[in-house]
């Protein structure tokens, strides 16, 4: 079947393609494909061929929040409110369906040219992360946006996504992240030990 439309294809990196991670990748992709929401990037199909695992998804015309912040440093309160509300709407629908993203960060928040906001990589983050915080002794996920539960290796639910969104909005409004460190591990552990600066200052 030829759909005659432009799409994006995301491939599971070979070093992640263990039997368990491939099964999670497929399972999460199928679940995410059922999540039809205007603020979530649509998933059209999965590919499993010649040891290659991939997801075929909607190609979004726009940029990422990460690129926008790299260029402009911060958002206006109105823009932050629009993005935060859009992401919350998407997460509410996902969590109601039993889906947890686990890797909410500026690079996974897409700003469409028509003003819409979409979350990318549902069905990918959890498949890559597995069920715990570590994989082969290293932190899984983006250290700057991990929830305390992820840092401690505890069971994660939708609240981890909301915590990460809070960190994203803190960065977007202040121009910097609330926690810092010399290594990813230090950044991750800081949220267990340090009170973040007041965003109003």
What does this structure look like?
This protein is globular. 39% of the residues lie in helices and 16% in strands. It has a domain at 61-193: Orthogonal Bundle (Transferase(Phosphotransferase), domain 1). The model is unreliable at 127-140 (pLDDT under 50). The strands form 3 sheets. Strands 1-3-2 form a 3-stranded antiparallel sheet, covered by helices on one side. Strands 4-5-6 form a 3-stranded antiparallel sheet. A two-stranded antiparallel sheet has the order 7-8. With 201 residues, it is α+β, with helices and mostly antiparallel strands. It contains 7 helices and 8 strands, in the order E-H-E-E-E-H-H-E-E-H-E-E-H-H-H. Helix 3 (77-96) runs antiparallel to helix 6 (158-174). The longest helix is centred in the middle third of the chain and has 20 residues, at 77-96. The termini are far apart.
């Amino acid at each position: 079947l030829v759909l005659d439309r432009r799409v994006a294809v995301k491939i599971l990196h070979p070093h992640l393609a263990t039997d368990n991670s491939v099964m999670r990748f497929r399972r999460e992709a199928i679940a995410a494909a059922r999540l039809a929401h205007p603020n979530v990037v649509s998933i059209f199909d999965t590919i499993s061929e010649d040891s290659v695992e991939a997801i075929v998804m909607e190609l979004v015309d726009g940029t990422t929040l990460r690129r926008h912040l790299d260029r402009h440093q911060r958002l206006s309160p109105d823009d932050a409110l629009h993005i935060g509300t859009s992401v919350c709407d998407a997460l509410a629908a996902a969590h109601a369906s039993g889906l947890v993203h686990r890797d909410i960060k500026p690079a996974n928040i897409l700003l469409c040219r028509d003003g819409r906001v979409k979350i990318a990589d549902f069905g990918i983050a959890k498949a890559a992360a597995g069920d715990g915080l570590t994989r082969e002794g290293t932190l899984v996920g983006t250290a700057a946006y991990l929830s305390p539960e992820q840092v401690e290796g505890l069971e994660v639910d939708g609240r981890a996504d909301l915590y990460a969104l809070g960190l994203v909005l803190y960065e977007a409004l202040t121009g910097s992240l609330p926690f810092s460190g010399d290594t990813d591990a230090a950044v991750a552990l800081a949220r267990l030990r340090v009170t973040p600066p007041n965003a109003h200052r």
